[in-house]
Amino acid sequence: MNDIMFEVKDLRVSYGSIAAIKGISLKVRKGEIVTILGANGAGKTTTLRTISRLHDPTSGSILFKGGDITRTPAHDIVSMGISHSPEGRRIFGILTVEENLILGSYTQKKTDKKILAWVYDLFPRLAERKRQLAGTLSGGEQQMLAIARALMSKPEMLLLDEPSLGLAPILVKAIFKTIREISQTGVTVLLVEQNAKAALKLANRAYVLEVGNLVLSGTSEELLASEKIQEAYLGKK
Ligand code: ATP
After folding, report:
1. What is the pTM of this model?
2. Which residues pair with 96 in a beta bridge?
3. Nearest Cα to 119, choosing from 85, 168, 165?
4. What tens digit of pLDDT does each residue of 129-165 get?
5. Is the Cβ–Cβ distance between 11 and 25 less than 8 Å?
6. Is the CB of 17 under 6 A from ligand 1?
7. For the ABC transporter domain, which residue ranges apply (predicted)?
8. How far is the CA of 121 from the centre of ligand 1 (A)?
9. Distance of CA 119 to the CA centre of its chain
10. Phi and psi of 133, rounded to 5°?
11. Could you give the strand order of the β-sheet that contains 157-161, starting from the edge strand earlier in sequence?
12. What is the CATH number of domain 32-56+80-234?
C-alpha cells in the first residue's frame, strides 16, 4: 500500500553500552491510530523520544512522508508536522493554561487563534481554566493540557506517551474519547500505552514491545483475540 506516512526501519538505540531498542521496524498509515504496547522498560518511551530526535539512534532509519528524518534536529521535526506529548506531561506549572498552549505554537511566528479555538473545542475543561496556573490543575487536566499543547503546532502526526498514566478509569475513558476525536480531525496518532485494553479498543493496529524487541503486531482485533496478549497484558488466563 502506498499510504504509509511514517516508517521506522531496523531502529537501534543504546544508552552507553546498554541496548534499549534492538532493531525494531514499524509503519503507520495516514489517518491511523497505531499503538505500541509493552511493560515497564520495554523501550516505548525511548522509541518515541528517538522519533522526536531527543535521542540519537545507533542505527536504522526513520521516514516521514517519504523523506528520511533520522538525523533531522528536534525543532525541525515539529515544523515538519510531528508533535510529541511526553510521558509525565512536562507542563510548565508556574504558567497559565493558555501560556502553556501558546508555548506549543513556538514553531509558528504567532499563535494561530483558529488552532487555539480548535484545541479549546476539543478540551472545553481547558477553555474554562485558561487563566489558571497549570501547576494547580488536576492530574487529568494536566494530561489534557500536555496533549493540547502538542496540538498547537497543528501536527499531521501526534506522538502520545502514556496519556492514561495515573488517571482514574473515568478520566482514561474521557482522554481516549478525545484522542479518537483528534484522529477524526485527520491527525495520525502513534500512541504508547501500558493500558493495553484501552489502547487496543481505540487503535487500528498495534505493536508489542518486549525488552527492546517487537514480538507481535497486528490489527487491534487480532491482538485482543491473541492468547498471549490476553495472558500477559489483559489479565486473562
Ligand atoms: P515505562 O513504561 O516504564 O516508561 P518504557 O517501555 O517507556 O517503560 P523506556 O523508558 O524506553 O521504557 O526504557 C527502556 C530501557 O532503557 C530500560 O531498560 C531503561 O532502564 C533504559 N533507559 C531509559 N532511559 C535511560 C537513560 N537515560 N539512561 C540509561 N538507561 C535508560
Report:
1. 0.93
2. 133
3. 85
4. 999 999 999 988 999 999 999 999 999 999 999 999 8
5. yes
6. no
7. 6-236
8. 35
9. 16
10. -65, 135
11. 82-85, 157-161, 188-193, 33-37, 205-210, 213-219
12. 3.40.50.300
